[in-house]
Design goal:
Blueprint (H helix, E strand, L loop, with lengths): L7 H16 L2 H24 L3 H20 L8 H23 L2 H20 L2 H5 L1
Helix pairs in contact: 2-3, 2-5, 3-4, 4-5
């Protein structure tokens, strides 16, 4: 009854993320995807540095899932060349993360973080809520 293995701080943070997702605008949801992918890669790097292979793989898989099933599928391919190029870039990132996982390559992880960071920053610049002010 009292011996629960849950971490109250983690549970509170999870609840905060869930409420942020429920109330988020479409633009904010994409920002959350970028943040999630970047966090997963940073966690994978820490696991890689400490030799925790299974945990590294889990974190890289999470980042790949966010990129493929979040960022990439959110692209409107009817929008033309930019969407096509972003889809190709997301495919490249996934390939680099797979390589990073197989070879425990921190540089490949860092490369993907840099690419995600650049797109994330550009996405933040087009925030429609900031445009209204």
């Amino acid at each position: 009854m009292f011996g629960s293995h849950t971490n109250p701080a983690r549970e509170y943070a999870q609840l905060g993320r869930e409420s942020d997702i429920v109330t988020a605008s479409p633009h904010r949801l994409i920002v959350l995807l970028f943040e999630g992918a970047e966090t997963a890669i940073n966690v994978a790097k820490v696991h890689a540095e400490h030799g925790r292979i299974a945990e590294r793989g889990t974190s890289i898989s999470k980042a790949i899932d966010i990129i493929n099933n979040g960022l990439k599928v959110s692209l409107d391919m009817r929008q033309g060349e930019l969407a096509v190029r972003l889809a190709s870039l997301y495919d490249y990132m996934v390939a680099r993360l797979l390589y990073a996982n197989m070879k425990n390559d921190l540089d490949a992880m860092q490369e993907v973080l840099k690419l995600l960071g650049e797109i994330h920053e550009a996405w933040n610049q087009i925030d429609p809520d900031k445009q209204k002010k």
